[in-house]
Design goal:
Helix 1 runs antiparallel to helix 2 and helix 5 crosses helix 6. It is built from 7 helices and 9 strands.
Length: 239
């Protein structure tokens, strides 16, 4: 049944994506907020279909941050990006520059105002990311970064990259860690029924030294993530 539901959801995902991307083409000649609105509708419809077709719902815990703040999230699946974009108000998400070359999807996320980085650019890439981040902050937009740089399996050891500390130091703002357990349920093609939990943790204040910030971020995120993974596995066992 899980495979069958996953196939149906894949078809839903494809149909909805094509339909909304085509219908929203006029947004490219309208103010940027029109693209943000269309992108949020896409996210909302995908999550509705995920619950209705695959039986996979989600729960939000903690206080969703508002305004110019740095959000550092655990990353296990595509679900994370879709949901964070929906929950936050006009988020500027840090993404790999290669994603901008994907037809339609790349065009829309670029127009919506993501922060695209060249991961091989080292110091220059950090300066560009910080400059884009400051512009987003000036507009009152939250910035979302995935500190490990890529999706990780639930049992993979943590691998936090220094880019998040560089951005935190350059921007001089609080950082909200985010824990989740999406990788237990959204496992590539398969979508297992259940409930993903995403949790916004207490903010780390601005101004910490780099080492202290990295230690605090990793400890808070990994501790909460381990708890959510254990909770998710118990839910799967009882299903």
């Amino acid at each position: 049944m899980t495979v069958f539901r996953s196939v149906l959801y894949f078809l839903w995902f494809a149909i909805v994506s094509v339909a909304i991307h085509l219908a929203a083409l006029p947004a490219f000649v309208l103010p940027r907020r029109a693209t943000v609105w269309a992108s949020k509708r896409w996210s909302a419809v995908l999550l509705w279909g995920l619950k209705a077709i695959a039986g996979l719902d989600y729960e939000v815990r903690g206080e969703i941050p508002q305004g110019g703040v740095l959000v550092a999230a655990k990353h296990m699946s595509m679900w994370d990006t879709i949901t964070l974009y929906l929950l936050l108000d006009d988020a500027a998400i840090v993404v790999k520059r290669e994603l901008l070359s994907i037809p339609f999807y790349g065009w829309y996320i670029n127009r919506a105002g993501v922060i695209a980085i060249d991961r091989s650019g080292h110091a220059g890439a950090l300066r560009r990311m910080a400059a884009q981040g400051r512009a987003a902050m000036a507009a009152g937009r939250p910035i979302v970064i995935f500190p490990e740089g890529t999706r990780k399996n639930p049992d993979a050891p943590p691998d936090y990259k220094p880019g998040v500390a560089g951005l935190y130091g350059q921007l001089g703002v609080a950082c909200v860690p985010v824990a989740l357990n999406s990788g237990l349920f959204w496992t590539g093609f398969l979508k297992k029924p259940g409930r993903i939990v995403i949790e916004f943790l207490p903010a780390i204040p601005a101004g910490l030294k780099r080492a202290e910030f990295m230690r605090t971020l990793q400890e808070r995120t990994e501790t909460a993530t381990a708890r959510l993974i254990a909770e998710g596995r118990e839910l799967l066992r009882s299903a």
